[in-house]
Design the sequence.
């Protein structure tokens, strides 16, 4: 087991430095929780105990995303922002929008379904990764330690949401990280930040005062393929069953 | 919370307060933006607690803070944020303005300090227009900087090659400017230069034709350089956009440019517009629409031939046959009158007709009559008309889908009639005359008379106030009104953007028609391909400008564009600076350097700086330095401008003015002069006398109309058209044969009309445009989904594939713009067309996975103008569709 494995996103975030050194350099407001969140699994224990100390023994965060489909217009701002932020090469998408048309003329409706890794609580990709390259961090994000990935593709084929792919540049498994490198700095994921209509809400489900918690406590929300028992952390408002059923498929050409 | 506490908190928690504005030093821009967006001002205790947490948690904490009741907050006018000061070791923030479409949203270029490159684009929260966000095109904007096919050097067509052969040689700027100024040889032919033409007394033989040129760039080039040079042979592109809409407005309420006040409305009707995907105020407008429709549950009805994304978000998509919006609007007028839902006081005070006039006029325009024409059920027309009239206020959005028709001007005028009947003109929540920033300059406007060739307006149009740009090349070919010797294009792609691509190409390639053709652009595309000389321009993230796009809040906004990076790549030069250099070389510059002093501007930066130092408000806020850091300014104490027409004129305004007896127009004419028949009398308009009160009224702009809303237009009557909005069928759509379909075009959110396709991210998402057709229509023609078909119009054919869908009106074939480039770089052409001197080795190039870049519909759409405005009739073409064998 490698001791200091780093994800590509860590490297991107300029975190190719020792954790202690980083702590000194960390931007104002970045919490210890955030830092622990993207440290490789081997490091988590220490980080958590330190974190518990700093944080007065408070509970861990449980980060999740809520997408209000009533506000989504299928413009793909999220997809583009994700590509810019994460350097995702052409041909693959960490985040995309599926468009579904239903009905018979003149009673036709059009639906938009933003797609990304669901950061499942019980993630099949995590279970199926033979090298423990896929791991869950302290905030509940499912991340990939690239140094441990042997590109076997097990995770890609086991993801029921088809959110994973082999990155043609790095040649290892890749997917949405909820912009872990941004989140640890206290920022929002790029797609959340980019949505011109504010359709996406990101936050801590364990914080009873967070916006996402409050909305989820008062509004009905849905997840994709609940019958699979994966317990996704991406929730939708106004997800239409028949739209969800056509969710299969990776990025498809938009018309 | 009292202001002092807030200030002291802000000083402690967020840094310093500069000139009343906050400098957020600690939290990131995004956190600051969230705070501003939510009108959040925290007290000290809360802030201290919040800052211990990570910033986005801080926002959440702040949300729980007590509501701030200070005036600025109640108005929703948060303090400005010093964007530049947010820069940190990792990222630098440069406030600028987007240019991916004409909306020109305030933007921020975020630079990665390690690579020195722009890594992402954000919206500027200091402008209320787009709430600190950008659309997909804006977010992808920085990709253009990295386009391996962008132009980096001046190029001249190689000797022995023909225009369009893609045979180029690199030349120096010195050579290029010398050729432009003093003329020289191109492929063995002698051409004259700008200086020669001017010295010979024929500056009008220099034609400047621009596609998108706005704000200070337009001022510098058009109002200063070209005016000082002496040519008014200046072409634009409005007639292929929405020129007919503007002409209709000039005939009716005088000036042009409207804003639908959706944030205060109770009902939205849309005819031929798709603001959620494309609009001249795209994101600012669509954000407000979505806010109302999804949060406030305002009903929205979209009449369109296709279920677009606006339709998808509407209360109801109402399918309608192309070109019949006018019939539905007239029938709605009929319903409003029959149900007595009109606002008689407003209508009879402010328009030049009475309810009785209109009642008689629309008597036969029943919903049943309109159903037969438009396919919209009579009961739907009636229901929506009643809902709209009762909404008080409601607003109607119309655009190219309504006006790019034979009857486009009439349609827009009919919409005005319906809105006026309900009293929704200039009313809160209705349709408003737009307001925008009025920048000032200390540079004196050039004096003297400019000359022009009469080739801009086509021939035979009644009122082409925004020109007939799609007819310009044909006018050059016909030659009856002279031909330009030098034809220079700027950010303009005539062959792709106009109808009949083939006609455009043939004319542009003909050296006998256009002796010297120069194209200025950022990339090599169809707009540069047929030129003799190509100049590489700076991308919008690399140049200076001030911007003044219309406000969505009726409060003028001032913002600037500045270079995000310290240097330009290759030999790229901002064309605005090139213009300053041209002026010097032509002899128009500083008299101290031997010029005639008609053009004294030294650079684009100087021009923008001067405006910042001389524009009231901007100047007091801190002028140029302030704008470089904040990017934008608006008066946070100003109230939105409504009811502009009802302003009563002060005695000072009336000084020296007389009242025209016939019309009641107050104007500065000579006693005894008749307002209506005096040439350009509208320029002397002061106001309108209504019942002994001098009102501002609806000031005219292009014709001698009164200060009333002219629902009846004598001008149109004199030109042989009906004075009142009247049904005009599309001639080509009468008596369609069973196998004939109507071709309509549309736009999508991911692309601008013709320019963004060189963007890798955008073209990856949208690059092909199979023709949409209803299954019933496909069945009748024996066609099926994904089939290759030939679509033929009166001028030619294209081959495309079918996408059979329920979301299109039967009898129609819909093909989007954006696709089918035959130049414009490899991302736009599925890797096929490398630009001259294009660079290889970019990893994205080998990952262009799409093989199909679609088909451009303009090859088969003829260049035809509507009879009144000359607006290109993009939506009227009749075609046949057969299986390609």
Sequence:
């Amino acid at each position: 087991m490698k001791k200091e494995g780093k994800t590509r996103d860590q490297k991107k975030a300029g975190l190719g430095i020792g954790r202690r050194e980083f702590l000194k350099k960390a931007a104002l407001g970045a919490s210890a929780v955030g830092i622990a969140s993207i440290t490789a699994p081997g490091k988590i224990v220490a980080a958590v105990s330190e974190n518990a100390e700093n944080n007065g023994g408070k509970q861990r965060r449980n980060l999740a995303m809520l997408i209000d489909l009533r506000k989504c217009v299928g413009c793909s701002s999220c997809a583009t922002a994700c590509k810019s932020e994460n350097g995702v090469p052409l041909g693959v998408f960490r985040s995309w929008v599926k468009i579904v048309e239903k009905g018979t003329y003149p009673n036709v409706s059009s639906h938009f379904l933003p797609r990304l890794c669901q950061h499942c609580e019980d993630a099949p990709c995590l279970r199926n990764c033979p090298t423990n390259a896929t791991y869950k961090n302290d905030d509940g994000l499912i991340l990939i330690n690239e140094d441990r990935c042997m590109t076997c593709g097990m995770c890609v084929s086991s993801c029921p949401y088809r959110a994973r792919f082999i990155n043609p540049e790095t040649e290892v498994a890749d997917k949405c990280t909820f912009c872990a490198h941004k989140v640890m700095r206290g920022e929002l994921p790029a797609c959340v930040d980019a949505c011109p209509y504010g359709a996406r809400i990101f936050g801590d489900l364990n914080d009873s005062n967070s916006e996402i918690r409050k909305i989820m406590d008062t509004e009905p929300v849905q997840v994709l393929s609940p019958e699979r028992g994966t317990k996704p952390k991406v929730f939708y408002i106004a997800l239409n069953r028949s739209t969800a059923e056509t969710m299969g498929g990776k990025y498809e050409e938009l018309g | 919370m009292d202001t002092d506490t807030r200030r002291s908190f802000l000083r402690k928690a967020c840094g310093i307060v500069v000139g009343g504005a906050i400098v957020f030093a600690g939290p990131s821009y995004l956190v600051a933006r969230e705070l501003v967006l939510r009108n959040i001002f925290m007290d000290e205790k809360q802030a201290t607690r919040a800052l211990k947490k990570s910033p986005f948690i801080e926002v959440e904490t702040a949300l729980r803070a007590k509501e701030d009741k200070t005036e600025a907050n109640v108005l929703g006018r948060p303090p400005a944020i010093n964007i530049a000061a947010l820069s940190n070791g990792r990222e630098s923030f440069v406030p600028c303005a987007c240019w991916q479409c004409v909306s020109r949203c305030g933007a921020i270029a975020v630079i990665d300090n390690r690579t020195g490159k722009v890594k992402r684009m954000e919206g500027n929260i200091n402008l209320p227009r787009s709430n600190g966000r950008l659309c997909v095109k804006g977010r992808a904007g920085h990709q253009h900087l990295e386009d391996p096919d962008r132009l980096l050097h001046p190029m001249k067509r190689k000797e022995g090659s023909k225009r369009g052969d893609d045979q180029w040689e690199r030349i120096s700027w010195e050579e290029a400017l010398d050729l432009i100024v003093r003329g020289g040889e191109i492929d063995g032919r002698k051409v004259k230069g700008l200086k020669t033409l001017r010295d010979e007394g024929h500056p009008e033989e220099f034609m400047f034709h621009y596609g998108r040129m706005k704000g200070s760039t337009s001022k510098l080039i058009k109002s200063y350089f070209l005016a000082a040079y002496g040519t008014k042979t200046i072409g634009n592109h409005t007639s292929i956009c929405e020129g007919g809409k503007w002409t209709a407005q000039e005939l009716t309420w005088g000036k042009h440019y409207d804003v639908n006040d959706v944030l205060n409305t109770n009902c939205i009707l849309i005819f031929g517009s798709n603001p959620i995907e494309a609009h001249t105020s795209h994101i600012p407008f669509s954000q407000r629409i979505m806010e109302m429709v999804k949060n406030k549950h305002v009903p929205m009805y979209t009449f369109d031939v296709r279920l677009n994304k606006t339709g998808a978000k509407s209360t109801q998509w109402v399918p309608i046959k192309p070109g019949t919006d006018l019939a539905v609007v007239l029938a709605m007028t009929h319903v409003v009158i029959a149900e007595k839902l009109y606002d008689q006081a407003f209508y009879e005070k402010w328009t030049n007709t009475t309810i009785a006039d209109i009642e008689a006029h629309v008597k036969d325009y029943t919903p049943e009559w309109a159903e037969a024409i438009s396919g919209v059920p009579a009961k739907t027309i009636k229901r929506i008309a009643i809902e709209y009239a009762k909404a008080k206020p409601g607003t109607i959005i119309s655009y190219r889908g309504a006006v790019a028709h034979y009857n486009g001007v009439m349609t827009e005028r009919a919409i005005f009639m319906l809105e006026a009947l309900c009293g929704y003109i200039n009313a809160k929540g209705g349709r408003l005359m737009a307001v925008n920033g009025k920048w000032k300059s200390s540079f004196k406007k050039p004096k003297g008379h400019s000359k022009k060739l009469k080739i801009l307006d086509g021939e035979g149009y009644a009122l082409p106030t925004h020109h007939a740009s799609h007819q310009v090349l044909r006018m050059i070919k016909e030659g009856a009104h002279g031909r330009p010797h030098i034809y220079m294009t700027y950010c303009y792609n005539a062959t792709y953007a106009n109808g009949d691509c083939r006609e455009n190409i043939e004319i542009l390639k003909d050296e006998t028609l256009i002796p010297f053709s120069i194209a200025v652009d950022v990339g090599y595309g169809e707009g540069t391909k047929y030129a003799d000389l190509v100049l590489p321009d700076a991308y919008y993230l690399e140049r200076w400008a001030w911007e003044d796009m219309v406000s969505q809040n009726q409060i003028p906004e001032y913002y600037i564009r500045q270079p995000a990076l310290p240097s330009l790549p290759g030999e790229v030069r901002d064309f605005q600076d090139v213009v300053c250099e041209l002026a010097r070389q032509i002899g128009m510059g500083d008299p101290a350097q031997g010029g005639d002093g008609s053009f004294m501007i030294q650079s684009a930066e100087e021009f923008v700086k001067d405006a910042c130092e001389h524009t009231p408000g901007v100047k007091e806020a801190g002028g140029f330095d302030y704008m470089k850091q904040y990017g934008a300014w608006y008066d946070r104490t100003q109230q939105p401008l409504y009811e502009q027409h009802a302003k009563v004129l002060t005695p000072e305004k009336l000084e020296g003015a007389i009242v025209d007896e016939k019309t009641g127009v107050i104007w500065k004419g000579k006693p005894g002069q008749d307002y209506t028949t005096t040439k350009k009398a509208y320029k002397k308009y002061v106001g309108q006398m209504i019942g002994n009160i001098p009102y501002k009224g609806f000031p005219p702009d292009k014709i001698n109309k009164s200060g009333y809303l002219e629902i009846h237009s004598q001008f149109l009557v004199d030109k042989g058209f009906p004075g009142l909005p009247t049904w005009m069928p599309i001639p080509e759509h009468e008596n369609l044969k069973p196998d004939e379909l109507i071709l309509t075009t549309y736009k999508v959110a991911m692309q601008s009309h013709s320019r963004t396709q060189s963007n890798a991210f955008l073209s990856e998402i949208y690059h092909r445009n199979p023709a949409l057709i209803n299954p019933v229509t496909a069945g009748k023609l024996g066609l099926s989904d994904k089939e290759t078909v030939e679509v033929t119009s009166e001028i030619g054919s294209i081959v495309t594939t079918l996408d059979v869908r329920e979301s299109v009106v039967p009898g129609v074939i819909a093909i989007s713009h954006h696709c089918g480039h035959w130049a414009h770089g490899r991302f736009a052409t599925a890797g096929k067309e490398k630009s001259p001197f294009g660079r290889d080795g970019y990893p994205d190039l080998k990952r262009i996975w799409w093989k199909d870049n679609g088909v451009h519909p303009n090859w088969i759409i003829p260049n035809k103008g509507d009879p009144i405005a000359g607006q290109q009739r993009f939506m009227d073409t009749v075609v046949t569709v057969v299986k390609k064998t």
Q: What stands out?
A: Chain A touches chain B through 57 residues (CB under 8 Å). The beta strands of chain A are 63-68, 95-104, 107-116, 134-136, 142-144, 165-166, 173-174, 200-204, 234-237. The domain at 61-255 of chain A is CATH 3.30.70.20 (Alpha-Beta Plaits). Residues 59 and 206 of chain A are 8 Å apart (CA to CA).
